[in-house]
């Protein structure tokens, strides 16, 4: 066949040659992804309907709390536009290395393994201006090629909202155990968080529960509680939506200090009310069975 006569014929001929190769590549990637995920007992997604509710902070402290219970834990940060995990764990600039069986995650305290989109960015301050298909390819590559080894739990820190990235990850991991939904108590957050719960229901992703973050401020001097963002909105919303409520995390200045210094809050300040709230929130997750 003469592929050079007409543009239409050229495109068609190229498609005939590239099609099988592309399908083979996709099939190989799918098999690699399935095999990789099979080594992970539980996959926990951490979602929020909007940014600024402390989703990444919750993800880190949930992961560390699980590791402190003796579990083998990994954290995967798939937030392209605001990968916070490297900063929260003081891992910015850590090089990503290749091992014999894939990309090696970065080791952290309690044996936690960490991988973030942020590790792949050459310059921290550069904006990621990628269209959906490119993001999806990178997410798929991370899921298929990161060599986690055996894990009890993989905690996935999602970008806020219900767009391409959350949808892609949720569809690529059809056997995920479920999602933790993070909100703050005020109506502005709750309206968007309801959409995250509906997102999970439409994709048949179990909602493990709602965490109400920034729920009251405990004065370090008088110990009185001030409800800066109101209180109880997350628990009320969870009841209305028919999903579990995992607990309230109060506003705690030490959380800010620990986050800015790259220290997991629950690991360093385990006796505080907020740390105890994190520990209580993971109890239903520790009781998971199956897979």
Please tell me about this protein's structure:
There is one protein chain. The chain has 291 residues and is α/β, with parallel strands linked by helices. The protein has a single domain, classed as Rossmann fold (3-Layer(aba) Sandwich). The chain is built from eleven helices and eleven strands. It has helices at residues 7-37, 55-68, 85-88, 132-145, 164-172, 187-202, 233-241, 253-260, 265-268, 273-281, 283-286, and strands at 40-48, 73-77, 97-99, 102-104, 106-107, 113-116, 151-157, 178-183, 207-218, 225-226, 245-251. The strands form two sheets. Strands 1, 2, 5, 6, 7, 8, 9, 10 and 11 form a nine-stranded mixed beta sheet that branches. A two-stranded antiparallel sheet has the order 3-4. Strand 8 (178-183), helix 6 (187-202) and strand 9 form a beta-alpha-beta unit. Helix 4 (132-145) packs parallel to helix 5 (164-172).
Outline the secondary-structure elements:
Layout: H1 7-37, E1 40-48, H2 55-68, E2 73-77, H3 85-88, E3 97-99, E4 102-104, E5 106-107, E6 113-116, H4 132-145, E7 151-157, H5 164-172, E8 178-183, H6 187-202, E9 207-218, E10 225-226, H7 233-241, E11 245-251, H8 253-260, H9 265-268, H10 273-281, H11 283-286
Parallel strand pairs: 1-7, 1-8, 2-6, 2-7, 8-9, 9-11
Antiparallel strand pairs: 3-4, 5-6, 9-10
Helix pairs in contact: 1-4, 2-10, 4-5, 6-7
